[in-house]
Design goal:
- Helix 5 packs parallel to helix 6 (112-125).
- The chain folds into two domains: 3-21 and 156-323, Phosphoribosyl-aminoimidazole Synthetase, Chain A, domain 2 (Alpha-Beta Complex), CATH 3.90.650; 47-151, PurM-like, N-terminal domain (60s Ribosomal Protein L30, Chain: A, 2-Layer Sandwich), CATH 3.30.1330.10.
- It is built from ten helices and 15 strands.
- Strands 9-12-6-13-10-14-15 form a seven-stranded mixed beta sheet, sandwiched between helices. It has a five-stranded mixed beta sheet with strand order 1-2-5-3-4. Strands 7-8-11 form a three-stranded mixed beta sheet, with no helix packed on it.
- By secondary structure, it is α+β, with helices and mostly antiparallel strands.
């Protein structure tokens, strides 16, 4: 595909469309402002809510699973419901504590494989399921899961700064769950290895090597970069030739991945090599794929050409323009 075709495909993608629904939701709730400045560290838009608690932060997040995945692959949907929440906590520099679930189903039997998938993920990741809510008299199976975690130091979508480098870390030891964009490198991974891989993010936060990160979500690589840039009031330029990816996967498809282990990080130049080395030590692919700049645009480069995907000053992505945070994110380091 040409760069223009890639840009058009990204703009029309399902993942990006889902994320554009967030802004009107926040506007309706009145969320994303600084009204809760005494109880939260940053406004809405990050992977978790971060609540000051003692010498660190409680992290609180939730995810709902799309109905078509639950219907087609109920066990995998249950597994992912736990994994994506754990990934959100890790993206904030935290470690998970426990999850709760809310499940609806038409009888107990349809819920069984979903719950089995959740239980498998909880065992593998070492995160207990401590409660929730069930309704076995619903018209169809639906699932939402919430998580509690803790961080000593935060990684945040609000901490990227112009002049920093954009890094992508992704576990390539996986495969697509066809026909979906889900890149699964988790379900067959040894539990201790996977837990150690996820702990890298907290270690980066605690070492002061990084302050800004976001897990690659259903919006794909470019869409996740857009969310990071919007929250931090910066722009980003991604060099598509530098993306770590399997050789046999087309670039256009790889841009849309929702990986079981994948993160974007904004890192100061002097820390880039050290951050890359942390991931590579665990056989996780990591590379510098772009730069953070001061213009409110998301740009893609390929073969020496550059195209703009989105102008954040012209069209909000996930945060209503009148509710973007005005407080600067303050990151403590050791």
């Amino acid at each position: 595909m040409t760069l223009d075709e890639i840009v058009a495909k990204l703009r029309a993608g399902r993942g990006v469309a889902h994320k554009t629904d967030i802004a009107p939701m926040l506007a309706a709730l009145g969320a994303g402002s600084n009204d809760n400045a005494d109880s939260a560290v940053m406004a809405a838009g990050d992977d978790c809510a971060a609540i000051p608690d003692g010498d660190g932060y409680l992290l609180f997040a939730a995810e709902g699973m799309v109905s078509d995945l639950i219907e087609a692959m109920p066990w995998f949907a249950g597994y992912c419901s736990v994994l994506v929440n754990v990934s959100d906590v890790c993206a904030m520099g935290g470690r998970p504590i426990a999850v709760v679930d809310v499940i609806w189903s038409d009888g107990v039997e349809p819920a069984a494989p979903v719950l089995e998938g959740m239980a498998a993920a909880a065992r593998q990741l070492g995160v207990p399921i401590v409660g929730g809510h069930s309704n076995a008299r619903s018209e169809r199976t639906q699932l939402a899961v919430a998580i509690l975690g803790r961080a000593k130091y935060l990684l945040s979508s609000f901490a990227a700064r112009a002049g920093e480098k954009l890094l992508m870390a992704v576990d390539l030891r996986g495969a697509f769950v066809e026909p979906y964009p889900y890149w699964n490198a988790a379900t067959e991974a040894p539990a201790q290895r996977l837990r150690g891989d996820l702990a890298v993010l907290a270690e980066l936060a605690e070492s002061g090597l990084c302050a800004a990160a976001k897990d690659i979500s259903m919006a794909g690589i470019a869409g996740t970069a857009m969310m990071l840039a919007e929250c931090s009031r910066v722009g980003v330029c991604i060099d598509l030739d530098r993306l770590p990816k399997p050789a046999d996967v087309p670039l256009a498809r790889w841009l849309e991945i929702f990986p079981s282990y994948g993160y974007l990080l904004s890192v100061r130049d002097e820390h880039v090599d050290a951050v890359i080395a942390r991931f590579q030590a665990r056989n996780i692919a990591c590379a510098q794929i772009g730069e953070i700049h001061g213009e409110p645009s998301i740009d893609l480069q390929l073969g020496g050409e550059t195209r703009s995907v989105w102008r954040l000053d012209a069209q909000p992505f996930i945060v209503p323009a009148d509710r973007r945070a005005t407080r600067a994110f303050e990151q403590s380091t050791v």
